[in-house]
Design goal:
Length: 391
C-alpha cells in the first residue's frame, strides 16, 4: 500500500481500537464500521451513558449525522428551536436564527441513539475497559496490561485524554477558566408548554455580576437549563441549584428555577480547553474533546467533534495509507476547528452575548461548515433560511 488515493476496492478489511464511548467515540466508531472496518470501542465506565442535561446540535453536526444515518432519529426525538432569543433583566433584546436548521435534544437520548446505531453497525462495545495510552505503531494499551493492535487506534477519551497524554510528540496547550456552568434537566412546566416555547432563550442579568440562564426545550416533557455564573459567585455555582439566589436574579423564571432546585443528576463544570498539534502520531489519532475541547459559548464542542469523526472515516476511505489519510484529514478540518475554539474562547472571555448573540456570518461559520463527506442531497435537506444569510 502507498500514500496514494485508494483504488476504491472494498476488499480491505481494517481494524480500529477506540478509547471512550462519548459522542465523538461513538460517532467515529459508527462511521468506520459503516465503511467496512471492524471496530472495538472501550469505555472505562461500567455502563455506556451520558449524564442527564441537554445539547444543541448545529447544522454542521446534523449534516455529519445524516452521513452516518442517525440524524432522522435526532429530528424525531428532539426539538428544532423556532428562534434564538436573548433577554436582559427580563426584557427582550433580540430574536435571531428564525428557521435555522439545528436541534436540541437530551444528552441521554442522543447517547442512546448513537449506542444503538453503533451496535447496529457491528461495533463491539466493551465496558469497564480503561485505556492508559496508545503506541503510535498501532496499539491501544489497557490498564490491565493488554495491548490491542489495530490499523488505527483512536483516543476519543475526552478533555483529560490518557491516549493524548501518552503520545509524547504532540504539543498541548491546556487552559482552565474561571467561568463555569450548572446544567440541569427539568420537567417542562405548564407555563412553557406549546410550540411558541420551542425556542432557545438566553436570559441574562449583569449586575452586580454576570448570571445567565440558557433555556432550551429538548422535548415535550423536558427543558435543559444551563445556569452560568463566575465561580467566585459560590452560591450560584452550586449543585443542587440555590433557588433563592437564582430566583432573586430571574424572578420571571421562578417556576423553572424552583424545578431546577429539585432536579436530580445536575452538575457544575468549569470551562476547559486544550489545543493539540498535530492530532495524530503514527497510527494513533485523537477525536473530540481529546483533541480540541472548547469553551461552550458557541455550543459547538460536540458538534465539531462529530463532524471531524465522520470526516475521518470518509478520508480514510479515500487513501490506502493511514498516515496519508490522517494528514489530509487534519488539513481539511484544522482551520474550521481552530477558528471555533478561538471564537468560543473570545466570546466566553468577553461575555458579549448579553447584548444579543449577534449570529453574524463569521459566528455562524462553524455551524454552516459543510464537511467534504456530505452529499449535495443532504446539504439541500438543511437549507439556511435566506434571512439568516444576510447578516
Ligand atoms: C456547559 C457545556 C455546554 C455544552 N453545550 C454543547 C452544545 O450545546 N453543543 C455541542 O455541540 N457541544 C456542547 N458542549 C461540548 C460537549 O459537551 C463536548 O464537546 C462533548 O461532550 C465531548 O465529547 P467527547 O466524546 O469528545 O468526550 P466526552 O464526552 O468527555 O467522552 C469521553 C468518554 O471517554 C470515556 N473515557 C475517558 N477516559 C477513558 C479511558 N482512559 N479509558 C476508557 N474510556 C475513557 C469517558 O468515560 C467518556 O465516556 C458543551 C460543553 C459544556 C461544558
Amino acid at each position: 500500500m502507498t500514500g496514494t488515493h485508494s483504488t476504491g476496492s472494498t476488499d480491505r478489511s481494517r481494524h480500529a481500537e477506540v478509547a471512550g464511548a462519548g459522542f465523538a467515540g461513538l460517532t467515529v466508531s459508527i462511521a468506520l464500521a459503516r465503511r467496512g472496518w471492524t471496530v472495538r470501542l472501550h469505555e472505562q465506565n461500567d455502563q455506556v451513558r451520558d449524564f442527564g442535561a441537554g445539547i444543541l446540535l448545529w447544522r454542521n453536526a446534523m449534516l455529519a449525522l445524516e452521513v452516518i444515518g442517525v440524524a432522522g432519529a435526532i429530528r424525531a426525538n428532539g426539538v428544532q428551536p423556532g428562534t434564538y432569543d436573548t433577554s436582559l433583566n427580563g426584557d427582550p433584546v433580540s430574536s435571531e436564527l428564525a428557521g435555522y436548521p439545528y436541534w436540541a435534544i437530551t444528552r441521554p437520548k442522543l447517547h442512546a441513539l448513537l449506542v444503538s446505531a453503533a451496535r447496529a453497525a457491528g461495533v463491539e462495545i466493551v465496558t469497564g475497559s480503561r485505556v492508559v495510552g496508545a503506541d503510535p505503531a498501532g496499539a491501544l494499551l489497557l490498564a490491565d496490561g493488554t495491548r490491542l493492535e489495530g490499523d488505527l487506534v483512536i483516543g476519543a477519551d475526552g478533555a483529560g485524554s490518557a491516549v493524548r497524554n501518552s503520545l509524547g510528540d504532540l504539543t498541548q496547550e491546556r487552559k482552565k477558566y474561571q467561568d463555569g456552568v450548572c446544567r440541569v434537566l427539568i420537567p417542562r412546566p405548564e407555563e412553557f408548554q406549546g410550540p411558541e416555547w420551542d425556542r432557545v432563550i438566553d436570559f441574562w442579568t449583569l449586575e452586580p455580576d454576570a448570571m445567565r440562564i440558557l433555556f432550551i426545550p429538548t422535548g415535550p416533557d423536558t427543558i435543559y437549563m444551563g445556569m452560568m455564573a463566575t465561580t467566585t459567585n459560590e452560591r450560584a455555582s452550586r449543585i443542587p441549584i440555590d433557588v433563592e439566589v437564582w430566583s432573586k436574579r430571574f424572578p420571571h423564571l421562578a417556576t423553572a428555577v424552583e424545578l431546577a432546585g429539585r432536579a436530580e443528576g445536575g452538575r457544575h463544570d468549569n470551562y476547559q480547553t486544550n489545543r493539540v498539534a498535530p492530532w495524530s502520531s503514527g497510527r494513533a489519532v485523537l477525536v473530540g474533546d481529546a483533541a480540541h475541547a472548547m469553551c461552550p459559548a458557541l455550543g459547538q464542542g460536540a458538534s465539531v467533534g462529530i463532524v471531524n469523526a465522520v470526516e475521518l472515516a470518509h478520508t480514510l476511505d479515500q487513501y490506502d495509507d493511514v498516515g496519508a489519510a490522517l494528514a489530509v484529514w487534519e488539513e481539511r478540518e484544522r482551520g474550521m476547528t481552530d477558528a471555533a475554539q478561538a471564537r468560543s474562547a473570545y466570546m466566553a472571555e468577553t461575555r458579549t452575548l448579553a447584548k444579543g448573540n449577534g449570529f453574524t456570518a463569521e459566528v455562524m461559520e462553524t455551524a454552516n461548515f459543510e464537511l467534504p463527506a456530505v452529499t449535495p442531497e443532504i446539504v439541500a435537506a438543511y437549507p439556511v433560511p435566506e434571512g439568516d444569510r444576510s447578516w
